[in-house]
## 1
Amino acid sequence: MEFTASQIASFINGKIIGDETATISGVSPIESGEKGHLSFVAQERFADHIETSKCSVLIVSEKLLTKDSYPTTVIAVEDAYLSFQILMNLYKEMQGRKSGIEDGAVFHKTAEVGENVYVGAFTCVSEKVKIGDESQIYPQVFIGKNVKIGKNCVIYSGVRIYDYCVIGDNCIVHSNTVIGSDGFGFQPTKDGYQKIPQLGNVILEDDVEVGANCTIDRGTIGSTVIGKGTKIDNLIQIAHNVKIGQNNVIAAQTGIAGSTVIGDWNQIGGQVGIVGHITIGSQVRIQAQSGVNSSAKDSEILYGSPAINAGEYRRNYVHFRNFSQIVKRINDLENNSKDKTNE
């Protein structure tokens, strides 16, 4: 599809500087722009590209513009990053949605499917499953018995949703994620570790997105809950009976142990480890590769392993880097003191 600068500006309420008939047929990163492509500049550190980019049209935040004309066509907006997101969403909608049941999909006779639903080939829909209107279930998905999937969801190929789990409206689950696998529960006995049955489920509330190759374990009794609007990156493990609140973002390779409770609007970096049976407040920021082994209050910033206040960690790290010199200075002081005592 091709679009003119004028059409693009109308979608995002932008002001054109340059040729309003300039056309684009693709998009590029600003660092490697191409003729006939669209890109954006939202930050000061990329502002030099406004003069040098080969892109035919650039969306630029107004605060970065200092001239009346530029070598390429510019669309001035308040927030270029947000405007570019709007355009990407519009383009995705224009591509259309699939609907209907493909050959090879297997349905139990008691399953219920809403209107305008797509189910791909070789997907298995078990007994008493309910799938809401407008949802997209891609090929080779397994949906266990009594699972409920809400409206306008997207479940990509290879996802496994175990029995009795609940997926809210507008959720996205990426390929090869497993929702509702058994929690890691074993009782030590004289004969070895005996498995504890995991009888609960997983609940994803509305507007949750789960990345690829994640595992979210079912509760032992009760539910593992992912709150409304929470976004989970790839390769994340969430253990049984964890409760995660609303609008959290959790980066890749994080592991959260059982029965931990996490509040709202937290930011958790990549490769963070969080022990079980603790409480993380709201608006907490946990830096990448931190190991959290105790509860955190609202608005704390944690860093390190074991994780402590980020500012304290950085101050102490300066001393740690100079630790050899500090020890040498102490030894020198002790030696000088002994020498003076001997005199």
## 2
Amino acid sequence: MNMKNELEHGVSPAPTEEAAPAAPAAQPHAAPAQPAPAPTPRRVRRVGTFTMGLCLVIAGIALVAGMFRPGWDMLNLFKLTPLVLVALGAELLAASAAKGDTRLKYDFLSTVMCFFLLLAGFAGVVGMKVAEYASPENVQRMETLESEWNTAVGTALAKDKNVENVNAYVNYGFSWPEHTFVPETLAGLNGDAAASITLAGEYEDVQAFLAAAQPVVQAVKGCGVEMPDIYLEAGGPEGALYTLDICGAFDHQRAVTDLAGQVQMQQWVEEAGCYMDADEAERWKAENAAAAREEALAQREEELAAREEQLAEQQAAQQERESELAALEEELAAWQAELDGAAA
């Protein structure tokens, strides 16, 4: 009612007080957050370390075996180097199958070292073989064998009147794996022992040369070496030279008189100053003749060039003289014109 009266008299009603908001309810105190546990680091396994260790062991055993067992052929061990790849692949498969939480890491340096260790081991063994071969004892033994071989051949052919000259020697050089040891006796030389023999006199044909060479070859074979290299030479008709080289099992198992196909006949070529077989002499003569023709042609070309140069010089001198003559004629014509003018 009062509010109605106030509205009627133009009086604004008094504002009513609003209720104050209620205070928020107290929240319970929250516990602090716990940090997450750190992840466990994964183990790392290097693939290739085991293979490198295995190669170290093999290389060491090879070096020891090479020093204490000289007769052991180390080349067969070197042929097994591809097994390094097999060992490395097996190690990789085994590590992959049983890795679990382990992280694999390829040990590249160890893999490379595996190959270098095997190569170094092989080089060391070969180096020891070379050092052993070149030892003073072996050098003295080789000198003794060569002296024995030279004495044996010289003694066997000393009384043979068909022999003019003899040179016996030994060609024994180090090579892997055939020649790594110096033999103890002459029988171990075989093809490393050689004899160069010159027969006296001249022989009409190849068969006569072979007939004279047969007893000489048999005498050399009886000097303690089963299959030595034997080189024979003798004079032939018209300054020819017969040569025969007997080497290897095939030649030694045949009679000397059956080796006519291996005899070479050479002719003395005066221009070359040496012996040559027929084909070689013809080829040399043809090449020499061609070279002589080329030289003569080159000389003629030089002479022609010189003559052309001389002719060019003469032509130049002729042109110079003609120019001088033309100048004199012009000068003479000028004087004549002056004389005519003066007379007029």
